[in-house]
């Protein structure tokens, strides 16, 4: 385990501009540097790198982080690999924190397990490649599908053979449990073993780092199922992976969009014919994890499904998975081909340009949503329109709060059901408390799985009948516009970026499962000050810490102070790296840090800080004084306390006026 102190020392010596500049062409843009975002396709630069604050942020897709995060996200390195690479560049040696024997043993077991599974998959892949060269039937099938040897080699296509225990040729110890665990071999109830894949063209499935994690097999003769995937293994989960994403990454960047199709052969066949930006789900409905990965590759997604009933059902499920993650800068469309065609056959008959023209004419998500809802109900009668609103309510609640797209869809839907926008908004807000629609729950789950998206979770909750967070939970999730509170009543917000979307982050280091907390105005002010000037924590005395303890809305401020103290972080990037990725603080820091990119440092941050704390103390004293008045100032102790508070308020007010 790498000590946090070393990570902070490393970030103090590494320049994020140098690290990012190796991969992204940057140009000067004021105090920062600008470039085209490497994490999504864009034509105008929205990717900003701050040399003073030592972090990057994309205002298009929301990607953000430090030099370490950038290497993890851009190169696919693990956290330890990224740290070691950066340390090597600046002549530092990475120490390892001592771990307990149990921790060391668990780590070794995990690494050994991954290594064993990786090895057996690679050994099987080599065998499948050898068998393809000697199989006339498999080669003839691929030729009939119009595939060349070059495209087969690019995707690593192989042949499983027909032998029931064919892999025994390369695995002499066929009884090895790893063969079953990795999904290559099936063990029957009577203990007999046999190969999972037989008489199938084999499609290796790779993760985002290009590592082999499983297989898909397409039978070429009679038999079911036509497509067969590896089972769930320690390396492979079909609900999280997309076939062809590794191979299509260059094509997606070149085309400016990602095309989602239904099968392996569609992906390979389209690539053969020049459409090289296609990926496929692995025999499962589109999930939130799929959408998250797709949005990290492009802000334009086109789903291509068959035009039959099954295809439209699959499209509808994909639409619901997309709803919580939509943004105003994201385009999601649906392409329905004639029932007699799949993408591969359509391109073969009409050509790649005709298919691209179909992609350009794909139905936008909003229209598909409206048309599908209208098709399910008799819209020429009041009962049908009422039922349509009933079905649409949880779907509309899944849309991210505060987006122009949500507003546009709601207004368009209101016209469709013969309501005014105000009437529809009132009906959407009338969801009984405690009866959260299943679709909203799905949206919450999707948002947790895809932190890089704008989440509807709590906005939907308020539309479902909650007027706002309870009085004793003012720090609960979401980042809504500030509302007056008993403690900070009348305190104006001092600028904001409320609602900014935190980015997705690398596995194991920067994923968040919760939405950012709502933060009161004064808390935001303090958080911004600390982020911009972390050294303020060095001057905090006991009296100021006591003031901060008085504010129920200042939990995150106290957490940030503790983080700066314990980690030693002294710039924004270092604080972002030090924050627990699963914490509410990490989400709030990600949101606020983007606001600091174009802000100049204050000439006297200490004075700003002291003034903010005086305001906090004043509000606390006035609140206590009001409570005493409401209690009738009963008793000498209450009257004495009231006078004491008055003197302190007068003193603080005098200081504030100087």
Compact summary:
Helix content is 49%, strand content 10%. It has 658 residues and is an alpha+beta fold.
Characterization of this structure:
This protein has 658 residues and is an alpha+beta fold. The chain is 49% helix and 10% strand. The strands form four sheets. A six-stranded mixed beta sheet has the order 12-14-13-15-16-17, sandwiched between helices. It has a five-stranded antiparallel beta sheet with strand order 1-2-3-4-5. Strand 9 and strand 10 form a beta hairpin. Helix 10 runs parallel beside helix 13 and helix 16 runs parallel beside helix 19 (438-449). The radius of gyration is 29 Å and the shape is globular. Mean pLDDT is 80; it is low at 432-519. Keywords: DNA replication, DNA-binding, DNA-directed RNA polymerase, Magnesium, Metal-binding, Nucleotidyltransferase, Primosome, Transcription, Transferase, Zinc, Zinc-finger. RNA polymerase that catalyzes the synthesis of short RNA molecules used as primers for DNA polymerase during DNA replication. It catalyses: ssDNA + n NTP = ssDNA/pppN(pN)n-1 hybrid + (n-1) diphosphate.
Layout of helices and strands:
Blueprint: H1 4-13, H2 16-21, E1 27-29, E2 32-35, E3 47-50, E4 55-58, E5 64-65, H3 67-75, H4 79-89, H5 101-133, H6 136-144, H7 149-155, E6 158-159, H8 177-181, E7 185-187, E8 193-195, E9 200-206, E10 212-219, E11 227-229, E12 242-243, H9 245-255, E13 258-261, H10 264-272, E14 278-281, H11 288-297, E15 300-306, H12 309-322, E16 331-337, H13 343-350, H14 352-360, E17 363-364, H15 365-375, H16 382-398, H17 404-416, H18 421-429, H19 438-449, H20 457-463, H21 521-532, H22 542-549, H23 555-567, H24 572-578, H25 584-595, H26 605-630, H27 636-657
Parallel strand pairs: 13-14, 13-15, 15-16
Antiparallel strand pairs: 1-2, 2-3, 3-4, 4-5, 6-9, 7-8, 9-10, 10-11, 12-14, 16-17
Helix pairs in contact: 1-24, 3-4, 10-13, 13-14, 16-19, 17-18, 19-20, 21-23, 21-26, 26-27
């Amino acid at each position: 385990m790498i000590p946090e102190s070393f990570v902070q020392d490393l970030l103090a010596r590494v320049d994020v501009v140098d690290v990012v500049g190796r991969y992204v062409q940057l140009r000067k843009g004021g105090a920062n540097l600008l470039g085209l975002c490497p994490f999504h396709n864009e034509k105008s630069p929205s990717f900003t790198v701050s040399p003073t604050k030592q972090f990057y942020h994309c205002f298009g897709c929301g990607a953000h982080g430090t030099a370490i995060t950038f290497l993890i996200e851009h190169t696919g390195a693990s956290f330890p690999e990224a740290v070691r690479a950066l340390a090597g560049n600046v002549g530092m040696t990475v120490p390892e924190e001592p771990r307990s024997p149990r921790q060391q043993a668990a780590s070794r077991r995990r690494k050994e397990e991954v290594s064993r599974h990786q090895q057996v998959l690679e050994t099987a892949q080599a065998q499948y490649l050898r068998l393809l060269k000697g199989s006339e039937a498999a080669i003839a099938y691929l030729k009939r599908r119009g595939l060349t040897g070059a495209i087969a080699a690019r995707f690593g296509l192989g042949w499983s053979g027909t032998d029931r225990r064919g892999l025994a040729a390369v695995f002499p110890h066929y009884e090895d449990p790893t063969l079953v665990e990795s999904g290559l071999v099936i063990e029957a109830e009577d203990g007999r073993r046999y190969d999972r894949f037989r008489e199938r063209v084999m499609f290796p499935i790779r993760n985002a780092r290009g590592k082999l994690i499983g297989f898909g097999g397409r039978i070429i003769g009679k038999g079911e199922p036509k497509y067969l995937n590896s089972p769930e293994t320690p390396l492979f989960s079909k609900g999280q992976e997309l076939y062809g994403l590794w191979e299509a990454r260059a094509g997606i960047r070149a085309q400016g969009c990602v095309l989602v199709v239904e099968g392996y052969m569609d992906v390979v066949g389209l690539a053969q014919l020049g459409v090289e930006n296609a990926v496929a789900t692995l025999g499962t409905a589109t999930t939130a994890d799929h959408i998250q990965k797709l949005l990290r590759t492009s802000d334009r997604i086109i789903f291509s499904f068959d035009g039959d009933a099954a295809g439209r059902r699959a499209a509808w499920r994909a639409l619901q998975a997309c709803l919580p993650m939509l943004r105003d800068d994201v385009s999601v469309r649906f392409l329905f081909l004639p029932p007699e065609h799949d993408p591969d056959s359509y391109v073969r008959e009409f050509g790649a340009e005709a298919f691209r023209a179909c992609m350009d004419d794909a139905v936008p998500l909003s229209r598909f949503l409206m048309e599908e809802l209208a098709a399910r109900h008799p819209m020429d009668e009041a009962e049908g329109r009422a039922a349509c609103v009933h079905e649409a309510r949880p779907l509309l609640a899944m849309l991210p709060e505060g987006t122009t797209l949500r507003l546009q869809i709601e207004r368009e839907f209101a016209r469709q059901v013969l309501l005014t926008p105000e009437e529809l908004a009132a009906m959407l807000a009338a969801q009984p408390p405690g009866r959260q629609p299943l679709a909203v729950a799905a949206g919450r789950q999707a948002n947790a799985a895809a932190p890089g998206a704008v989440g509807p979770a709590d906005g939907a909750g308020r539309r479902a009948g909650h007027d706002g967070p309870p009085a004793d939970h003012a720090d609960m999730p979401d980042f809504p516009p500030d509302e007056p509170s008993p403690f900070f009543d009348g305190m104006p917000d001092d600028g904001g970026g409320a609602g900014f979307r935190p980015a997705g982050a690398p596995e194991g280091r920067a994923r968040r499962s919760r939405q950012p907390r709502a933060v009161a105005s004064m808390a935001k002010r303090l958080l911004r000050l600390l982020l911009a000037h972390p050294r303020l924590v060095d001057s905090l005395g006991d009296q100021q810490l006591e003031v901060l303890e008085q504010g129920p809305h200042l939990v995150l401020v106290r957490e940030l102070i503790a983080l700066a103290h314990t980690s030693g972080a002294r710039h924004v990037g270092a604080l972002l790296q030090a924050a627990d990725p699963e914490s509410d603080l990490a989400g709030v820091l990600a949101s606020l840090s983007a606001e600091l990119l174009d802000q100049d440092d204050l000439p006297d941050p200490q004075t700003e800080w002291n003034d903010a704390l005086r305001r906090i103390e004043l509000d606390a004293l006035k609140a206590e004084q009001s409570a005493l008045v409401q209690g009738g100032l009963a008793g000498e102790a209450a009257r004495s306390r009231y006078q004491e508070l008055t003197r302190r308020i007068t003193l603080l007010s005098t200081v504030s006026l100087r």
